Amino acid sequence: MNFIKNKYFSLLLSISPLLIAGQNIKDTSIYAPLFTINYAYQLPEGDLRDRFGLNHNLGFSSGIKLSSSWIFDIQGSFIFGQNVKDTTIIDHLQNSQGWIINQYGEENRVLIHERGLTLSFQVGKIFDFIGPNPNSGLLIKSGIGIIRHKIKIENENNLVPQLNPEKLPYYDRLTMGLLLTEFIGYQHMSNNRLTNFYIGIEASQGLTRGMRDYQIDLMAPLKEKRLDLLFGLRLGWIIPVFRQAPQEFYIN
Domain locations in the chain? Predict the structure, then answer.
């Protein structure tokens, strides 16, 4: 499966220059469907800072760039990280040495991670006072969507009965809500059609709330309203698919 995905991605990279070859990207702002793969390293703030540390964010988007330099796209991303600050969720399971004992009376390793998802609709515009052509320049975007995050617990070999898969939702701090995003940076689409990317600063605000009716360690529901903030540097690789320009001469 990985081999097929790699071959498909390589094919997209190889044919995109052929698809855009007929258009004058050097002098004209061009309409084009855009596909991007992007990554951000993010710093949490607000209520999210109390739960998690620095995280990774891997995103994918699909959209269009209009000849007017407006961009519209739908972006989804996967949030992940190892820096979980709120370890109190399993404190009550630990013995005096800080270990969790499994069903055989042995010390059992338990790992906790950050996991999350975002989905948003974004609108942006390129201001082409910098860059090699009208399709490059200052890029400003904003978006609206949803964010979902939780604490993932890995119970090694599922030997701790209190942390079997059916009980994990009672610990995970599942949180969800409205997401607002802003981005400012630089988008580059080269004249040779081979190097297409963007890089910039991104800010996100999650107007969220807890989604669980009960959390075992709290002995109460998790329904609090939150303001979850993320700030980071995002880098994206663009795969443009420009339509062919019409031929100037035809032979009957």
Answer: 2-240
Distance (Å, whole) CA 77 – CA 38: 9
> One digit per residue, pLDDT tens: the chain, 252 residues?
554 445 444 544 443 443 444 456 887 888 999 999 999 999 999 999 999 999 999 999 999 999 999 999 999 999 999 999 988 898 889 887 778 988 888 888 889 999 999 999 999 999 998 989 999 999 999 999 999 999 999 988 888 999 999 999 999 999 999 999 999 999 999 888 789 999 999 999 999 999 999 999 999 999 999 999 999 999 999 998 866 544 444 444
CA-closest candidate to residue 119, choices 205, 50, 61: 61
Single out the residue of 44, 57, 78 nearest to residue 235, CA to CA: 57
Which of the four CATH numbers 3.40.50.11060, 2.40.160.20, 3.40.30.10, 2.40.33.20 does domain 2-240 have? 2.40.160.20
CB atoms within 10 A of CB 160: 20
Report d(CA 198, CA 237) in Å as an integer: 7
Phi, psi of 92 (to 5 degrees): -70, -10
Annotate 49-91 with DSSP letters as a single string.
GGTB-SEEEEEEEEEEE-TTSEEEEEEEEEEEES-B--GGGGG
| Pick from 180, 185, 190: nearest CA to 234 | 185
